Each structure stands twice: as structure tokens, then as C-alpha cells.
Amino acid sequence: MNDLLPSDGFATPLLRLLRTDRAGVPARLYAIPGAVGGPNACSRRSSLLPARGWTSRRMAVAQLLTPMLYFDPDHLAELDREAIARYHAIPRLNDDYRLHTELGPQPFEGDVANASIVILMNNPGFGDTSKFEDHRFHVDGWPYASLHPDAPRGMHTYSAPRFADLIAEFGAQRVSGRVALLQIHPWASVALDRSKRLVLPSMMLALNHARAALLRGALVVIGRGAWYWLPALGPADRPLFVHQFPRSVYWNRSSVPSEIYEQMRERLA
User: Fold this and answer.
1) How far is CA 73 from CA 149, 157, 195, 202, 238, in A?
2) Would you say 229 and 120 are in contact if contact means Cβ atoms under 8 Å apart?
3) 214-228: per-residue pLDDT in tens?
4) Is residue 150 classed as helix, strand or coil in its secondary structure?
């Protein structure tokens, strides 16, 4: 069991929080190579052997993703409610670390279950342009809704320039359908607390999404939060690209190595 835990120690409190679901029923954490916890966990060297006799790789990924593919903001809010309350009760907690739950959760942008490119990030940001509707804006056919021209101003002005070259070549709607951003957790804050004081059940759901993206062969890259994602994901078949400028993450031709940019183009073609 210990061999399966990320080396930074995040897994232990996560497992403690996730042993039961909302009804108090033991949580079903399906096993994949290097997966965190659960009575059916397998070793990193084993093949994909999901719990309860599943043999299909596709079905395993589907089961792994079920908790967050059904995106219910109320469920995520309830899932994290007690952990957020404990975190906010920490004496002298930096105001920049407080989670702005009034915006609602945004665990990802884009079709995270099918996107050709999955970018791992920190958590949603909070600032002067943050609005109530930011995490509630949706348009059919635009999974990464912030790339839509009518998206809330703060969301659009953050997202669109970061993919400007790809949008110029392939169009905003195509990029919206093929690219997804996945957050460590879904709650906005001015800054992310990197200490182990912040442990939310929804973090396991995000980690499952990242693992599933790797399993299905998506191009998975790290924009921010490498300090968390790399140890949490564990050894990968191939090294994950980590953006060299995590405080200013752009995915344009001049922003990343040419081989990474060309891989992104290939996934969008």
C-alpha cells in the first residue's frame, strides 16, 4: 500500500476523507497503475485491473471518471463543505488562500473526458474581474466555454490569449473542443496554499481525471502545480512536460518548446 502513495504525503489525508461517499458507503476507488488507495489497488507494475472483475480498459476509465463527469455543483459543494470549513477555521489563515465558494466550483474547463490535450493547473483564480457568472457560463458546442467570444470578460481575456496561435490556425471552437484545463481543486482563490493544510475530497476526483487522460493517450502537460501533480501522479510512461513559466502560462508558438507546440498542433488537426 505505501508504495502506491504520492511521496509528498498528500494521499494519506485524501484517503482518510474519501473512504466513504455522501451516504456513508465505502467509496469505490478503481485501481489503475500507481492509483491511490482502495482495497483493490494494484502495483505500479501491474496491468490495468479494475475492481470487481472489469476487464475493459475503456470501461475502467469510464468508471474512474464517473464521480466528476456528472458535474453537479451542489454535489461538489457538499463533498468539500466540511473540509473547507475546517480549512477556513485555521487561525491567521492568509486571506489570499481563502476559497471563494460563492463563485461555485469549476473543476475543469473543456471536455476533460475526451479532450486531445489536457493541461494540468492549480485552481481557479480570483481577482478584480471575478464575477458570479464566471463558473456558470456554458454554450453548447463549446466545452472550453471561456474561449467563446461571449464568455465573461475576465474568463475570456485570461483564456483566449493563451491559445492565440492555435486559435488563429484552427479556430476558437475547435480549440474549445479539443483542449481541457484540469484544476487541482475546483475553488477559486487569490493564491493557492501549497501546504498540506488544504486537503479536499474533490482533489481525488481531479487526480482520477488526470490519470484517466494518461491512460487513454491524451497529451497531458503541466501548466502550473507541478509540485503537486508530479508526485501525486507518480511515474509515467513518458516524462510530462512542465511549463517553464508557471506564473505566466501561455501555449503559443513562442511560449513552449517547438516539439510541444507541434504535438499540440497534431492533436488539433
Assistant:
1) 24, 24, 25, 11, 34
2) yes
3) 999 999 999 999 999
4) coil
